[in-house]
Amino acid sequence: MNRFTSLLVLLSLVFGVFAASAQDSVELTIATVNNPDMIVMESFSEVFEEANPGISLNWVVLPENELRATVTTDVATGSSTFDIVTVGMFEVPLWARNGWLDSIDALAAANPDSVQMDYDFDDLLPGVVKGLSYEGELYSLPFYGESSMLMYNTAKFEAAGLEMPMQPTWDEVREFACALHDPDNGNYGIALRGLPGWGEVMAPLTTVVNTYGGRWFDENWEPQLDSPEWNEAVSFYVNLINDCGQPGATGTGFTEALTLMAQGQAAMWVDATVAAGFLSNPEQSQIVDSLGFAPAPVGPVPKGNHWLWAWSLAVPSTSDHAAEALQFISWATSKDYIQLVGETNGWATIPPGTRVSTYENQAYLDAAPFAPVVLGLMESADPTDSTRDPVPYVGVQFAGIPEFQGIGTDVSQLIAEVLAGDVSVADALAQANDLTRDAMEEAGYYE
Question: What are the chain's domains?
């Protein structure tokens, strides 16, 4: 073999190695919501990629409503755009039943080396695991879990001589909000979601409906949105926002309300418990030293006032890189990841509500005095018993049926019209009831 031939052989070997390396490299496309915890997860991409040199991460970060629409369309049509999707307790059982998600149990059994070392599935909170399972199999790994509660600015309350009761009622919350409302100086008595979306305004509003004795459906799947209970609850919610809440409510979702509360512009906020960590972080919040917590308010019915939810990471059944996807989601939901966030950003900022060990970690308990309250709320929320009257569905802030995603979104648009003053509560709820019944009839719920 002459030197020229030897060079060709050498070059072919070198390029062959490069080709093999390129072929072995996997890019995971991850769809997630633009909540602060997920932004933190994205910021640690290099940590994961350095530990797993054969995998790179491509992020698609979207607002909640857009995420749900995009991911639902993608998995339902089998488009295989995403290797990992961010989904919640509403989607997981329904999508698992449709065959849209890979079983985590099956993936872990087939790819044990892809599971984060010392992952400890038994450490996951039982209630969260149950909500992310279908027929006894786990179909998603929880990134953070939450309930809902009332957060308030203690400095504003003290200055006004007000005291938050152990279990506030909605009537008491209205009294506080209107006493503290000072819009001329950019201060509002309360911040509440008004942004359309079944997971936006309809989440807190449904808990209000629960506490006023309302329900989405009766036992025969007949919609109940035109009931006196719904009318009273929606009227209360809308009047509270318009009288003593933030302006531009139809543009206020979780992130916008969080900003108002963190900047000291809102005296109170009823929303997801996960917000407590952000409000306790001095880099994100101006009210760290003036932060109080109470259970979510109740109405005439002391039931269904706080929800149970988990944002989680799942692998669509269309992904060609399921093993690598499992490698990432088991890392991002592991005890090691929680440790990484705690040591880097502060223990109050870790993703909460997923692991027993989190609530046994003294560093977290010292940094997050709200932690035991949150755990208690999560453990006491009951998606199978959240309404005064019997219902055929499971869910606190949603009805766990496939049709609810469309129904809840359509109803939320009508609620937004009420908030904007374009339609009365009675007319909006009459329309909502009709469109809900039409959707249920089309889906075959009635004989």
Answer: 3-146+309-367 (3.40.190.10), 148-306+382-442 (3.40.190.10)
